[in-house]
Design goal:
The chain is an alpha/beta fold. Helix content is 50%, strand content 14%.
Length: 276
């Protein structure tokens, strides 16, 4: 076997053991420098309906508030939006299915460190008593799709991306570990966002895994936040109010803040351990 290939395999395997051996689920390959915020639906896709409002308008407003909070507090973070006006992500000339694909393609192209998608929930009943928030992470039935996305975007996930080649069987060790690490990180973020809703006195449905395309196709940790039920009159009024939107945005922002600060604290710790 070629000496260079042998060294490459050894480095890959050692890197895999490094990921497995981290005591914290928030090990970081790099600092959190870019976050993709996705306002669900838009344009010809209104999303769910309330008595007087549409999901697409609420998600856009909340997404922009979350982005502003992040940018005001963290000058080192770039916020990228999948859409900034009332049209489908990528443009209304796309189909709804194409727009869903565009959202994750954009996140991968931007090499975002985190993906946050904002939605509003609904039930078939017109005036429903059901209320509450829900935070979703990638479901187990789409693990292969998640690993495929990570494998296709190896330059997004490691500083030593030249060591990772999708055609190299040894790389699958690393891809599988990144997939698991991203799920763990996503759950940490989701839990903190959910904690924020609980502290605000909201009814919550907690954190769940669900097989969603926007989470499975992104080569990074991510969550989808259902911020309430639009066919519940009380929640529709709340989600259309300045107070309600501000509180929702604050919960998502605080989840991001915790994630970033803990992740980067772990990064510093690892660097210091290496120096010693």
């Amino acid at each position: 076997m070629n000496v260079n290939i042998s060294i490459k395999y050894i480095l890959i395997v050692l890197f895999g053991f490094f990921l497995l051996g981290q005591s914290s689920p928030l090990y970081a390959k790099k600092k959190i420098r870019k976050v993709m915020i996705d306002a669900g639906h838009g344009g010809k896709d209104p999303g769910c309906h309330g008595t007087y409002s549409n999901e697409k308008d609420i998600t856009l407003s909340v997404a922009q508030q979350v982005g502003k909070m992040i940018q005001d507090r963290f000058k080192d973070v770039k916020v990228v939006y999948t859409r900034t006006d009332d049209q489908l992500a990528g443009g209304d000339y796309l189909s709804i299915k194409e727009s869903l694909m565009y959202r994750t393609e954009m996140a991968n192209k931007e090499k975002a460190d985190l993906y946050i998608s904002i939605h509003v929930n609904s039930t078939p009943r017109r005036n429903s008593p059901v209320k509450g928030t829900l935070v979703l992470v990638c479901g187990p039935t789409r693990v292969d799709e998640k690993q495929e996305a990570i494998g296709f975007h190896t330059d997004n996930i490691a500083e030593n991306e030249e060591l990772l080649s999708p055609s190299d069987p040894a790389t699958q060790i690393i891809i599988a570990q990144y997939s698991q690490a991203f799920l763990t990180q996503s759950i940490v973020l989701a839990s903190k966002i959910n904690d924020g809703f609980v502290n605000q006195g909201r009814v919550t449905e907690g954190v769940r895994q669900q097989s969603l395309q926007v989470l499975a196709s992104s080569a990074m940790p991510g969550v989808l936040v259902e911020i309430g039920y639009l066919n519940n009159a009380e929640e529709e009024n709340y989600l259309n109010s300045e107070t309600g939107q501000n509180e929702v945005a604050l919960s998502i922002y605080n989840g991001f803040r915790f994630y970033k600060e803990e992740s980067e604290r772990e990064t510093v710790q690892i660097i210091k351990e290496r120096e010693n």
